[in-house]
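Hey, can you fold this?
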Amino acid sequence: MAYNHGVAKAIFEAEWKKKAAEYRKHGMSEEKIASMREFEEEVFKSDRKFYEGLTDYILDEHSPDLIYEDTYQINDFIWLDLIEDEEVYKQLMALPREWLVIFTLHKLEDYTQKELSSIFSTTQQNISLRIGKIAEILKITCKTADFLG
């Protein structure tokens, strides 16, 4: 289902109304409530950019120095050389390049899923699903399993 900003905004507003009432009930100041709403609205806007495909891979002061577009080329995925099964290799090469980067960073360079979600401006769940999909294709066997740990 496609992203519908109007529906998402209505859901956000309804949920925020409930949260604000709960915060007031527990004695939170209007200033703090406004600050929390501002933060959550920024998160909401970033989600919109993600779902509409408008995000860039932007690094901030908390992100490792990684610009994957400039760092990795397909021939940099040395673990792919260990794939002996032609069908498995074809399945991996059919995946988006970003998925291979994520898998490589996670398995070989010990990036956490949290770090990767920050770098790629997506949720940890999406990172986990991408890593899991590649692991499923590989079925972590033979030399690949030994190499990837």
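Oh, and this one too while you're at it.
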Amino acid sequence: MITVSGQEYIFEDLKPFVTGSQKVLVKGEVKSSILRSRRVLEDQISSGKTIYGVNTGFGALSQLHIDEKDQKQLQLNLVRSHSAGVGKSFEPGVTRAILFLKLINFCLGYSGVRWDVVALLRDFINHDILPVIPSKGSVGASGDLAPLSHMSLALIGEGEVLFKDRPISSSTAYKKTGLNPLTLMAKEGLALLNGTQVSTALAVNGLIKMRNLLITADLVSAISVEATLSSRNVFNPTLHRLKKHPGQRKSAKNLWNILNKSDIVKSHEDCDRVQDPYSFRCIPHVHGACRETFESVKRVINNEINSVSDNPLVMWESQGVYNSGHFHAEPVGQAADMLSIAAVELGGISERRVYRMMDGENMGVAPFLAGSPGVESGYMIAQITAAALASENKTLAFPASVDSITTENGQEDFVSMAPIAGRKLLSIIDNLENILAIELLVATHLLDLRRPLKSSPVTKAVRDAVRRVIPFNSRDRVLSPEIAKAVELIQNEKIISAVNSKIKLN
């Protein structure tokens, strides 16, 4: 049970929603702030003040006055007309995060919605009723309008939901759970649609995955260093204290410690190789830069999680309603684009290490690590797959946030494209997981070829975790299932957990 009591959150707090169903409890003091905000809004409406989206039209139609008798219909029409999303629906973890982000946004007490709206969002989360939300259709300004409209459709008893892993109509879900759909009142449709929750949920999902992949990349690359008989000395923390980048220092320390007590490392301390390629020697510099980017993005997204994302804003302190642009997701879009670049670089340097391991002659093994070169191809095509994914990631890395297109007859003339940045980020991360999985397969195979020399205790633990699900095989075979199993080991954080008892990685 996660308690909502007005506290601030960090992206890690949303991991339970991303990985599975989760229950929430909204405390009484939060309800009080929601009721106070609603009273301010209703007082302003009663006074006859013109309020955007309450007694006016929306966007380019905001100059049109809406009679009191039509104001409820206005909110309903808004949700229906804006439900114009297309494409594959979001994964359950993203949808849960969207619901929770919208819930805590309302709990900040500046949106003017009734308690009924917050209570139903809470109930959707607690019953794991997940609106079916098409992933495409938002430009990330004036809120993530189309996807949040599809979320809102389920709240009013329309549209589809995922319930107990099955798509059903929302009306059926209400019957099964005993809940009642919302009847939207003044501003509530607009408040549900105006927000960055979709863009932010995508970025949160990316951060959760990248935190795992940054550490996994250090572990996997260390196996590659060891298996290729590359130098450990270049990771000596004393050397890296000369650079002022904390991420580089952490990565170097990780690799130095991972390779400690390795007989393989000791076996070539006096070899005649002067320097290793950059993809080995400069791992801390590249991985470290990715870590620095991650920290910057984390700060931006944590700030957005705890920000009011709505328009107009109900300011109970001054007893007024004010317009601004807090629905604009520019910070989220730029942050997602930055994290995408970091993910591309992690995958790019990983693929280069895989490529290096295909050159068996310089390492005393067969080309492509084939059992019988010529007759067999070994990991030749696995490397090509990694290259294809790394190249695809480069094309996906063009920042979405530098684009804009005018909508709403010029009213929305500069938009963030943050949800596009978020979706591209997750596609890049999916490719990155596969690239790292291929490196893991190749590096552990090459490590086994170094026997009877013993690897470090840490790399041995990773190798053993792999071998429990992917036995050593020197012959040609179908590699796709092995790649999939390696991806699963990475996604489930079993690579990291395999070494937790032996080393503390940062």
